[in-house]
Amino acid sequence: MNLQRCLSNLFLHRLNAGSIPSTKRFSLSHLLSFTFAVMSWINIDAQEVQLRGVVIDSLAPLGFANVIATDAESGKLAGYSITNNDGRYAFSLNSEASYILRASFLGYETQEKRLNVGADIDALTLDFTLRAETAQLDGVEIVYEMPVTVKGDTIVYNADSFNRGNEKKLGDVLENLPGVEVNDDGEIQVEGKTVQKVMVEGKDFFDGDSKLATKNIPANAIDKVEVLRNFSEVGQMRGVTNNQDNVAINIKLKEGKKNFWFGEVTAGSGVDADVDPRYLLHPKLFYYHPEYSLNVITDLNDIGEVPFTWRDFFNFTGGFRNFNSGGGTRFNIQESDLGFAVGQNNRAAAIGTKFAAANFSYAASQTLDLSGFGIASENTTSIISNTINQFILSGIQEQTQVQSEQNNQLGMIKFSGIYKPDARLQVDYDILLKASNQRQDDATFSAFADQTNDIVERKENRPTSIEQNINAYYTASENDIFAGQFQHMLRSEDPFYNAITDLLPFAGILPVSQEGGRFD
Predict the structure, then answer these.
(1) What is residue 137's predicted lDDT score, i.e. its pLDDT?
(2) DSSP letters of 26-37?
(3) Could you give the 3-state DSSP secondary structure of residue 206?
(4) Measured between alpha carbons, how far is 180 from 194 in angstroms, rounded to an integer?
(5) What are the 10-residue block averages of pLDDT along the chain, 520 residues in total?
(6) Among 55, 182, 352, 511, whose CB has the most other CB atoms within 10 angstroms?
(7) CA-to-CA dists, residue 454 to 110, 275, 293, 444, 519, angstroms
(8) Please, what is the end-to-end C-alpha distance for the chain in angstroms?
């Protein structure tokens, strides 16, 4: 790929992303109209109406009844609430819209009402009176499943009650649920709290990593989503540690997806605007059994989709259990990245990805559970940056062009074991190995006034680390719980940096060799 083609790709990509090209004909009126549009959107989006009401039957209020509001035109979920013990509910709706509201409770007929919300309204009240079901059909069993049920600290969502039919992955399903948000990086938040772990059928999915879960678990395999509040991995420490901000999600699969291999393959090929060939191959395979599970995810593409970046790699702690995160001595090892350039939102001239990951869990016995995963990834990225600085007083212009070629090879393996012979003793062991090979070559050309300079740089690093963790918990009595932790961490790095330039850097300060008229 030559330089002209790369520049063309980059320029078009920026235009498509909404960038405004620099031009002398850009007038103030354009800027004012853009600002007005943004402010108007903010004002409209901020207008919300608080809807309140009560759900009752002929005798008393109905607690734990479901109240759902959907947009009358699109059918999209707009609001949801569960009534309290007094039968009261409340949630917010956008103004100037029409909604269909449904109130339901087990053993009662669902009541439906249409609500038109006008402008300049702060609050509305809408009550429901449900009637007990009286229809009896011989030989027919009527099964009604509540969209949401609450069991102590657990909220259970019935996925099909919120799905609209166009969901592809777990992330799409979660975005339909009230109070649940998923950002572009796959991070999940429930009522403003970040989800710490994602499980499938009670087993960790790649150590609970939310990004791999939201972007890979098929939506058609999901039966229920369990939100576990005040979550603690060690039951013995539940009453000792503060778990108010700990939230986990457990995915329950549909019956046809248990004890059965299932998965999907996404494949495609073609050419881009420059008639360069492009490809995509993304097979996934899953198996879940009460005693063991296996997940395999692969991804090969050169269309700019990066399933696992080196930032994900460095941030992937392996989910080590820590019985006292608020105190004690903790070691924190951070691998250096040597200032490698990163394409924001996959903005680059070219990106090639090779990714493979496997995860397993195995119940070796009633007292021993084993699990582990392996991840390997290679990303090749080409980044082009052009900068023009215009100095108004002197009239001098500085032009800088940087071409970067990156190659990042990442790999990690983790093995975990949980030994629990009885309710009083639990021992956990984890070992995590991480290694990477990073390389970046930069070619920089700068022109300032009548002076030019070429700089060729190479950055390399090969960080490796081994982390081991052993936790032990013993309950001697109701008031006496003993916990111990042992950590071992080993890290090594092999950084390298080299630069060759036309101009003499640090003249008279550093010894610099000169070969072929250039400085090294």
Answers:
(1) 52
(2) --HHHHHHHHHH
(3) helix
(4) 10
(5) 34 32 34 34 59 92 88 81 90 90 88 89 91 66 65 86 88 88 87 88 86 89 92 73 80 88 88 82 90 92 79 57 41 45 62 91 94 91 90 87 91 93 92 92 88 90 93 88 92 90 64 59
(6) 55
(7) 74, 31, 55, 6, 10
(8) 28
d(CA 126, CA 110): 15
Short-list 406, 382, 201, 174, CA closest to 287: 201
Neighbours of 231 (CB within 10 A): 20
Token readout for 192 is: 């403003």
pLDDT of residue 86: 92
Q: Are 401 and 386 in contact (CB under 8 A)?
A: yes
67-106 as b/e: b if 16+ CB within 10 A: bbbbbeeeeebbbbbbbeeebebebebbbebebbbebbbe
What b-and-e string marks burial along 205-217, b requiring 16 or more CB atoms within 10 Å of the CB?
A: bbbbbbbbbbbbb
Q: What are the structure tokens assigned to 348, written together? A: 């680059």
Tokens of 255: 């019956």
CB 356 within 8 A of CB 297: yes
Contact call for residues 46 and 39 (beta carbons, < 8 A): no
Cα–Cα distance between 324 and 326 in angstroms, integer?
A: 5
Looking at residue 328, its pLDDT comes to 36
Distance (Å, whole) CA 329 – CA 320: 15
With H, G, I as helix, E, B as strand and everything else as coil, classify residue 445: strand
Token pair 């702060």 is found at: 122
Whose CA is closest to 257, among 291, 283, 219, 216?
219
Q: Where are the beta strands (DSSP E) in 159-306?
A: 180-182, 188-190, 193-200, 203-204, 222-229, 247-253, 262-271, 277-288, 292-301
In the DSSP assignment, the letter for residue 30 is: H
Structure tokens at 154: 């657990």
Contacts of 44 (CB under 8 A, 6+ apart): none
Residue labelled with tokens 């609430």: 81
The full set of domains in the chain, from first to last, is 48-135 (2.60.40.1120), 145-256 (2.170.130.10), 259-519 (no CATH)
The number of beta carbons lying within 10 Å of the beta carbon of residue 109 is 14
CA-CA distance, 467 to 477, in Å (whole number)? Answer: 32
